[in-house]
Amino acid sequence: MKNRYIDLISQTFDFPQEDFEVVDNCLHFNGIPLMDIIAQYGTPLKINYLPKISSQIQKAKRLFNVAMAKADYKGNYTYCYCTKSSHFSFVLEEALKNDIHLETSSAFDIPIIKNLFEQGLVTKDIIVLCNGYKKAAYTQNITDMIQDGFHNVIPIFDNMNELSAYEKIYSKQKMKIGLRIAAEEEPNFDFYTSRLGIRHAEIVDYYKNVIRKNSNLEFKLMHFFINTGIRDTAYYWAELNRCINLYCDLKKLCPELDSLDIGGGFPIRTSLSSDFDYQYMADEIIRQIKSTCEQRKVEEPHIFTEFGSFTVGESGAILYGITEVKRQNDKEIWNMIDSSFITTLPDTWGIKQKFILLSVNNWDKEYQRVNLGGLTCDSDDYYIMESVKSRVILPKIEQGETLFIGFFHTGAYQESLGGYGGIQHCLIPAPKHVLIDRDENGEYTTRLFAKEQSAKSMMKILGY
Ligand SMILES: Cc1ncc(COP(=O)(O)O)c(C=O)c1O
After folding, report:
1. Which residue's alpha carbon is at the smallest distance from atom 4 of ligand 1?
2. Mean pLDDT over all residues of the chain?
3. Residue 309 Cα, ligand 1 centroid: separation in angstroms?
4. Residue numbers in the chain where pLDDT is lower than 70
5. What predicted TM-score, i.e. pTM, was given to this entire model?
6. Ramachandran angles phi, psi of 7, nearest 5°
7. Fewer Cβ atoms within 10 A, N terminus or C terminus of the chain?
8. Residue among 56, 80, 85 whose CB has most ligand 1 atoms within 8 A, to mutate
9. Can you identify the CATH homologous superfamily of domain 5-50+318-461?
């Protein structure tokens, strides 16, 4: 009997899972028959399944609200979307359907918020947490927004010098501010303390000696971002605990402080065997905050999160076609994709990130172990799995056949890192980009967001 791809995947991974289904030997993603999408648009093709953005936000809200109910927690939960994980208008438009707030990280985020306001998608009540190391253009944009009546714009100070940039505001009126604590990095990281934020040892004195002396400054929110993201590790829980205790120290000095922003870092599924227990993590975070606050006799803070990847990552996928199989020696079979990993999935070579990789067609075919190669001449333009156990296994194809494959849950950070359009390695064009949605009857709809990049647009950038 043949060793079929479908048997391998279904036996190895408790497959099909939430987002995937195999129908007639072809893959469906969130109920979308991908071969139909490929037949219409071709490959390489970026897709975003928009309803996933809303369902992720609703999921996180549910997780934290359930955790709070279980712990009889007094504070409330606010979901902010971290725009840097994907700045696209279609992401913000979908996310904002879910009563959320925003987190920014650069001067250029502010025109996006102004545009959303002009479209009527946000009001001046929206909470905007402004993070990041800020140069003058950013603090100026923040100042403009506050003066324009966006009364919940909260700059989160990255360092103690940032304050003077807002003098124009706090010299005349009340102003809400946040402070970011520099997290201690994971023991095996290159640094001890994050370069972002104010040192733990300095923050209390800074509050006492500077912030408290100005009655127009309302220190409302304390923020930290733990480098590894939210993980069930001794490091995460120790850091969380340190930050909650610091919150309690500050709260005792500053009655108007009432919010704790635990940052981003809720993971997404990057492998079919991911088994992150989201409810357990939300429960435990809330339980630990509550219990420390009780011990320290401090009121529980409202909780803010700034989830980026979690919001948008699982909505994205990129589909490639493979028509060429190159056998370089007895063991190494290269499936050559019709684009480049370096340009379209920069995390795969930059940080050796793995994503869920599945064949889109040919699930009834025999499988084989392959390497995946990109079209640029760069020797790093490939995708493999280092561990022998988790090799890249795909259906075998014969000369003249086409295999389509998909990398899934790729919706966060890939364009922010690899660029979008522009000039890229070996002038490989940015692929076509299609948005998939559902109408009121539940039928799926597609629309072309961006055509494949043309030679003409590249020539223009290059000055020809
Ligand atoms: C301050 C801050 N908030 C939120 C995020 C979003 O993290 P994630 O996309 O992992 O949720 C980041 C990511 O670097 C960050 O630096």
Report:
1. 264
2. 93
3. 8
4. 1, 15-16, 191, 386-390
5. 0.95
6. -70, -40
7. N
8. 85
9. Lyase, Ornithine Decarboxylase; Chain A, domain 1 (2.40.37.10)
